[in-house]
Write a structure and sequence with these properties.
globular, 9 helices, alpha/beta, eight-stranded parallel beta sheet
């Protein structure tokens, strides 16, 4: 027990205290709110005692709501923040958030594949993550993996946690070539993968057993000590999906996982990186 959900977003209707970034309006926000109490209601029946919050895009680079939730529920929530990679000193913004308990930083491409991660801002972020022993967490599709691997070559001691199985299968079929490309990242020993967001991958249908081959191949490449499960709530509890089915895929439905493997994926790996 005392499992960890390594990927959850929260936000509030209280826009007076926590305004959305200028890129979002109230009409864009669905559901209207997803609060700490909401995720705990879903998670606690499955023995989830710790949760990693991922800064919600609705707030842009203002991580205030996530930080306040971490303080209010001290010890229960850890956090992955977002800083502006195009700013002059994103590393200084990272250090400020690290001092407030943030243990990782989401990165995602705003550029074409060939340009991603080439800026001086990203160089500072990779170096800062290494120095401060926090993770960088790419939200990417498979075509951005070569750029990430180049940075792993340059910064081999920086911890990388790839979100959502590199979103393999988010456009339909799970392709073998994409699986092999992701598995090649395992050559870099400080890379990890979130086994998460099942509702969005492959057939996108519970009990998600069509993802078994993908997960098994990634498991064999990285080992359970470098995999962590995350629900990606609230999206995992919308559109006919539910929390229990996501948890059960790892806990009950993958015969190749031993009890020790499941404990790594459901608890130990995320604890080591984010708590």
């Amino acid at each position: 027990m005392n499992f960890v959900d390594a990927h959850v977003h929260v936000w509030t209707k209280n826009t007076a205290s926590y305004p959305y970034s200028r890129n979002y309006s109230e009409a864009d926000v669905r559901p209207p709110a997803f609060l700490p109490g909401d995720i705990l209601k879903h998670a606690e029946p499955y023995g989830i005692a710790s949760i990693v919050l991922v800064q919600m895009s609705y707030y842009g680079y203002d991580n205030s709501y996530m930080l306040d939730v971490m303080k209010e529920y001290e010890g229960t929530f850890s956090g992955i923040g977002i800083v502006d990679s195009n700013s002059k000193r994103p590393d200084l913004a990272m250090c400020k958030l690290i001092n407030e308990g943030v243990r990782g930083f989401r990165i995602y491409p705003l550029e074409l594949c060939r340009e991603w991660l080439k800026s001086s801002g990203y160089e500072r972020m990779f170096r800062c993550a290494e120095d401060q022993q926090v993770a960088l967490c790419p939200l990417i599709d498979i075509e951005y993996l070569p750029a990430l691997k180049r940075m792993c070559e340059r910064f081999p001691r920086t911890t990388i946690v790839v979100d959502h199985l590199c979103r393999i299968g988010n456009r339909g079929n799970v392709k073998q070539e994409h699986i092999e490309q992701l598995c090649s990242l395992a050559d870099y020993p400080n890379t990890y993968v979130k086994v998460s967001a099942f509702y969005a991958l492959g057939q996108k249908s519970s009990p998600y057993k069509d993802l078994s081959f993908l997960i098994e191949r990634v498991y064999k490449a990285f080992g359970p000590e470098r995999l962590m499960w995350g629900s990606d709530c609230p999206y995992q509890v919308a559109g006919g999906h539910n929390y229990g089915d996501s948890f059960a895929l790892i806990d009950s439905h993958l015969d190749f996982l031993s009890l020790s493997d499941r404990n790594h994926i459901l608890r130990n790996t995320a604890k080591k990186i984010f708590f």
